[in-house]
Design goal:
Elements lengths: L2 H12 L21 E5 L25 E5 L2 H6 L2 E3 L4 E7 L12 H4 L6 E6 L4 E8 L11 E2 L4 E4 L10 E8 L2 E3 L29 E8 L5 H6 L6 E3 L4 E11 L4 E7 L5 E7 L4 E11 L8 E11 L2 E13 L1
Parallel strand pairs: 12-18
Antiparallel strand pairs: 1-2, 2-9, 3-8, 4-5, 4-7, 5-6, 6-9, 9-10, 11-13, 13-16, 14-15, 14-17, 17-18
Amino acid sequence: MTAKAIFLTALAAAGPSSGQPVELIFPLDCVLGQTCYIEDYVDLDPGDGHTDYRCGLKSRDGHKGTDIGLLSEQQMTQGVNVIAAASGRVRAVRDGLPDRPVTPQNRASIAGQECGNAVAVQHHGGWETRYCHLKNNSLRKKPGDMVQTGDVLGQVGMSGLSNFPHLHLSVSKNGKTIDPFRTEQTQTCSGTKGNGLWYQAPAYSPAGLFAVGFSAQIPSFADVKTGAARQTSLGRYDPALVLYGYAFYAEAGDLIHLRVIGPGNLSFEHETQIEKTQNQLFRAFGKRRPKAGWPSGDYRGIVTLWRNNRILAVRQTRLTVTP
């Protein structure tokens, strides 16, 4: 029996008492920093801003869970298992929603189903974990099923309000959102380390990507910051196609990789190394228009931030080239 199997068996046998907080294991069958990454944490700012549990920027205003992303849709197609972070009983499931990025055209159809295909598991003492955006027809549990820590619930998908393959894990107690990186009594950010509700807390880095986008030219930093640089469509004869990434807390030696995938076999990429530590920066790369013009259709841009061969952040964006 492996060390992981022994640990999971011990957890299931021990069964925490109802007076103790739930204890969680990492809910994906992936290697953090290699085959998956944490994009956003619970927002602990009660106002209009956002802050993660370490008082950093890796969250979004009003975000109520932990987002763990895959590196590609191909990885999602191959299958990455979502596992129960703790033992309990399945309260509810939803399946049958398609895996597709949210668009202005389909957003209305997602209303009331933002979590997508999902599993909700009740635990002792009023605790609950919810697993959102699972792959269509991948769920393995039904309401009333008992699950043990480490049981497969389904696979990572892109259902509901999502534009990339990821798991949104939310934790609550008696209906109140709890950040699993903090204890129930300290729902405020802190510069200190700790395991929170985790058996072993996943590693944290303050660095990340604010945004990525397409443009018809190398944008100014001011336009990148405000979002004015971002274009969601281009004409076939626009002079260039540029992908940019807007990063925060990047360090000297970090790598930013930019990749564009378009219709047919169109693909180009570029990697650049950060020369000095900066709180905010952006990098951009593109190509001049081919003589025949850009192939019409859908394009995808992927920007990845690396440090010491470890993935810190990935963000994607989409573009339509009109005829």
